[in-house]
Automatic annotation (TrEMBL):
InterPro entries: Rossmann-like_a/b/a_fold, UspA. It holds the Pfam family Usp. Residues 1-134 form the UspA domain. This is Universal stress protein. It comes from Rhizobium ruizarguesonis. The lineage of its organism: Bacteria, Pseudomonadati, Pseudomonadota, Alphaproteobacteria, Hyphomicrobiales. Belongs to the universal stress protein A family.
Amino acid sequence: MYRTIICGIGMGSRQTAIRILRRAAALVDEGGSVIVMHVIENIPHRHLMDLPEEFETNAIVDAEKKLSSLCKELEIPAVIEVRIGVAASLLVSSAREKSADLILLSSHVPDITDYVFSSIVEKVVRHAGCSVLVDRRPAPAHEGSASQAEDVAPL
């Protein structure tokens, strides 16, 4: 189906990450690649003085560990990439650099910031040069119990 899939994992629940990773594994061609990408949004410099120097490094290492562990648990071979920047731009540019033929993302319930700034998903759909699959979150009754929807923050 797809040779290279960029799988964007954000700050959602563990169940959402699992659903997206399983979908990517089901859609990738034999011999193809799944690139699991998490973007830590830029922090304005005026706020950096309140954060320890190693904040970004620790955030990257933590996200890489969680994503690697999850992929290993699901037996999904994937390349893990954690970057710092603007999520939509980095997802689109990474897809272009890697000649990806699919970007897989999850939707969320929109809030006021989506209406003011537009959502990451909307920006990726608008600017991607490849297909984008938006995985719709099922109704909460289908997500399972609260213990199953354990957060994997920052993922």
